[in-house]
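lol ok so funny story. i was supposed to be doing the assay writeup but got distracted and ended up predicting the structure for this chain instead. priorities right. anyway since i did it might as well share w the group, maybe its usefull for someone
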Amino acid sequence: MRPFYTLIVVTGFLLLAAGAGAEPTAPPGYTLKTFNTPGAAFAGLSRDGEGLLVSDLASGRLYRRGTDGKLVAFGPVFPHGLDVIGDPTGPYRVVRAHDGLVVAQGWTPVGSKEGPFDHALVALDAAGQVRVISSDFWNPFDFIAARASYYVIDSARNSVERLQPDGSKSTILTFRRMGQAATALRNLSPTEFTEGNSYETDAVPTGIALHGGRLYIALFGGFPFLTDAGEIVSVPEAGDQSMPHIDVEALNAPVSIAFDNDGEMLVLEHGTYDQKEGFRKASGRLLKFNKMTREPKVILEGLTRPVSVLVWDERRIVVSALDGNLYVLTRESAR
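and the output, tada:
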């Protein structure tokens, strides 16, 4: 992930006025509401009863959005800033688990001294006490809580880790580099990537989901973030996990996965990449895949650097983005 803008302080939670700039779009049968917080860089989403939990990389804060639509900050201010490649780092995700909250904290911001919360999974109890479960990660970008343990994506080690509440950890899978055809790279250097040659990029796992006894992982792909180079792969939660199955190919930097109440897969694409501009504005999309045919349907497009997708109920989906937007997509009638 690459630089996106100079971070500023969160100032409020506003409903974006109609016509205020280019808006993402949804297909017929869906309605879309956009909520904007100036200066925010929203990351992970999760549900906490009737409240929405969201983390903000711009301020290092955790927020709960209640039924009144207001964002209320809670917990400590986590380390935040820009990482070594110029992207925001901080509390990537917060999830209700084991009678408390668990936070995935990113790696140390540039210019800061390493602290106890950096590159760690951190527990926050009801009294506000903070405990580091484990800091034995490089960049824990996403995680899920399941069966009294955590499955953690380490996007810097290109691995999936299993973490126990006592801090013991084991590696489930480390992803091999992804082969790319020379034709995908000729626009970068027509002389270097000639016909018949190939090129490898890091797999870079990002999102993770558990569905039907399988762990589904989004492979974002590494620099130079080639078009159609992303994948969704899966392994059984129990059994042989050494050979991931490729479920979906030809994605543009998939960053988050979820399954709706009908068992259909939702994949959030971060967008397409330009060598000069970085990730292109309004190139992010939310795709829905038919569970039988795996044919995709675009149900939200025109997003700028989206990060997380959350299925709220049988009709509503929430998406967060680094540009400070939260999107609520509603299907107009249940099937």
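Confidence is low (pLDDT under 50) at residues 1-21. The longest strand covers residues 296-303.
back to the writeup now i swear
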